């Protein structure tokens, strides 16, 4: 499975918001899509999943061009999208939300396969298991995010697209969710992770793309992007993880402090 975008453009009315995007996600890879709010990340992932029509360019998935397919056909090809804001159905039970995730396979696989998949996901997400008959609206924000991810996995995706999974989630559950994303990669599911939390997403990703004003401004190894002071300052709004200059400066301060204490 490989996702390839070639010169992809998308527009709202007459306003182009994605400009000539080239991007690739290889099998078993986490790719982080980072940038400030309004950079175009959500538009990008919605265009990949078919919720927004592209205006130019191509989307290829698993060797097939899919940019002219409806969103449901893209799900059947193996792309599942967990949207920003979770969008679980609050007036439906957890079980009903999970079954909705498998809706595209209805009539294509036996009901017992859906039941087994729910049982498997309940083992992976134990917070859901004892509450399958509870209304989803009774879950916390972080628990709803876990449900949204589980619902996406019900489609048996090859590629899982996650749009701002840390938004509105407590710090403790954010750590759990990012740990889960790493486990998905270990299970062979590719992940395209769209996140404002650049530091945490790049820390678990294999590669990253930095967006600004609807364009990819740079790409590369995730850790190299995170450690780049220029990229962090100009596009990510975070300090770089480390640098030779910072380490040297800290070393000098430590040496001066040690000397002062000794005199």
Reading the helices and strands in chain order gives EEEHEEHEHHHEHEHEEHHH
Question: What is the CATH T-level topology?
Answer: Rossmann fold
Morphology: globular
Helix content: 40-55%
Which structural traits does this protein have?
single chain, 263 residues, alpha/beta, Rossmann fold, 6-stranded mixed beta sheet, 4-stranded antiparallel beta sheet, 41% helix, globular
Q: What does this entry look like structurally?
A:
There is one protein chain. The protein has one domain: Rossmann fold. Strand 4 and strand 5 form a beta hairpin. 38% of the residues are buried. The chain starts with a strand and ends with a helix. It contains ten helices and ten strands. It has a six-stranded mixed beta sheet with strand order 6-7-8-3-9-10, with helices on both faces. It has a four-stranded antiparallel beta sheet with strand order 2-1-4-5, with helices on one face. The longest helix is centred in the last third of the chain and has 19 residues. Helix 3 runs parallel beside helix 5. It has 263 residues and is α/β, with parallel strands linked by helices. The chain is globular and about 50 Å long.
């Amino acid at each position: 499975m490989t996702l390839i975008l070639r010169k992809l453009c998308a527009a709202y009315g007459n306003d182009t918001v994605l400009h000539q995007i080239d991007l690739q996600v290889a099998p078993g890879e986490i790719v982080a899509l980072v940038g400030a709010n309004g950079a175009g990340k959500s538009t990008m992932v919605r265009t990949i999943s078919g919720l927004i029509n592209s205006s130019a360019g191509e989307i290829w998935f698993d060797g097939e061009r899919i940019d002219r397919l409806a969103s449901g056909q893209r799900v059947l090809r193996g792309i599942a999208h967990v949207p920003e804001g979770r969008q679980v159905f609050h007036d439906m039970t957890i079980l009903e939300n999970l079954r909705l995730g498998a809706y595209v396979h209805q009539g294509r696989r036996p009901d017992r396969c859906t039941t087994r998949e729910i049982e498997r996901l309940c083992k992976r997400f134990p917070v859901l298991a004892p509450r399958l008959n509870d209304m989803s609206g009774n879950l916390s924000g972080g628990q709803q995010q876990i449900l949204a991810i589980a619902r996406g996995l019900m489609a048996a995706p090859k590629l899982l697209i996650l749009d701002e999974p840390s938004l509105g989630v407590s710090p403790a559950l954010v750590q759990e969710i990012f740990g889960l994303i790493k486990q998905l990669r270990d299970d062979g599911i590719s992940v395209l992770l769209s996140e404002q939390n650049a530091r945490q997403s790049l820390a678990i990703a294999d590669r990253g793309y930095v967006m600004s004003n609807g364009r990819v401004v740079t790409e590369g190894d995730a850790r190299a992007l995170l450690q780049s002071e220029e990229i962090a300052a100009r596009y990510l709004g975070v300090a770089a993880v480390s640098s030779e200059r910072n380490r040297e400066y800290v070393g000098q301060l430590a040496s001066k402090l040690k000397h002062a204490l000794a005199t």
